[in-house]
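Justification of resources, computational component.

The compute hours requested in this renewal are based largely on the per-chain cost of generating structure records like the one below. Each record pairs the submitted sequence with a full structure-token output. That output is archived, and it is also reused by downstream analysis tasks.
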Amino acid sequence: MEATLYALGFVERELLLFAAVWFIIGAADDLGIDMLWLWLRLSGRARTGRLEGPADRPLRGIAAVLVPAWREQDVVGAMIRHSLDAWPHAEMRFYVGCYRNDPATLAAAIASTRDDRLRIVVHDRDGPTTKADCLNRLYEAMCEDERRGRFRVRSVILHDAEDMVHPAALSLLDSALDEADFVQLPVRPEPQRTSRWIGGHYCDEFAEAHGKVMVVRDWLGAGLPAAGVGCAFSRTALEAVAARRGASQPFAPECLTEDYECGLLIGEEGGRSRFLRVRDARGDLVATREFFPARLDQAVRQKTRWMHGIAFQGWDRLGWRLRPAELWMRLRDRRGPLDALVLLAAYVLLVLAPVLMIGRALGYYEPVPLGHVLRWLIGVNAFLLGWRLLVRGVFTAREYDLAEGVRGVLRAPVSNVIAIMAGRRALMAYLASLRHGQAPWDHTSHHDHPALATRI
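The structure output for this chain reads:
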């Protein structure tokens, strides 16, 4: 018994040192973003703009909206109707990609509307392939329409089959492309009454990511990652990305986060990227409203794909850039697996602590006193943890309300557990892809999507 407890005590000290050091490094990274955002805010450089002009003003050119869909029969019809109603622009073309072995999604898309701006494209391969492969098929269909109609698309906009678009988003993206090659609007997860903790934790993460981190990243001039929804690319920029890849299509079919990669490649090719935070006349954020997974297994699957594509594939495919701002942002993008490991160490410590306390109370174990350095690390980490939770609560409350902000603080352990589970799964998936090649589209189902019933 004593030998076992002393062995556990040694493990505890090593894990404590490991977690304390890496927590401080990660917290310093986040603190740097916090301080830059605060300075931008106080100096007026980070103020959210106000929408000018009507939401449905004519576009400066033809906009092609690409929506890949695999087993989305529950949501795609409502999404198509909502988008075409919200965007009455005659200059828009709406492309929905379905698979030949997914008749339910195809039927739902066909039955959604008779709007002649809708083009349903049936992939000539069985699904699921990858999301990028489906996007490329839509891009091919768009190019074929250009050849037949003798026109040229000005902008390509990406959306998912469950998105709820803002009426002003299309015109805003179109006008922003006058001065940029890639534009990203915020993503606003919808709070879910039936999933306050799993589905709700996305509210906290995107409130910070698209209310602070992307604002700072835009100001720094670093490459902006595309979220895959609510983002617009100039046609010229996509052609440059395709040329860099030596292909006729811009999206890499072997990549799990083709949107993230495409956004960064535009920056590497010298294109200008912009992140826009704008509010409409009612004060609502012009953003893509999303209904994220409500179940633990679905959330872990989605976070696994993000971590696999951004951290592991991103390192392999995009490498590093020596410009300080770019290097910093890529380090942030790829720290997810390390964060998961550090969080796992912290939660193991939470299990070990009471076991050793009981052993000490029974007289079987006497801990070695903590050194000054370790005590200092623990104290600094405690302060930084408090700061981190405060910032998360403030940004969530700012975007939603005070009650949601309080939940955001309480949901932090949920985010951590999902990150740990996704980190392990992403590592296994990456190792499997090295052995077996291309990973399939790990699709997230969207059953029972009540938010789609509410229009903006």
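The first helix runs from residue 2 to 42. Confidence is low (pLDDT under 50) at residues 451-456.
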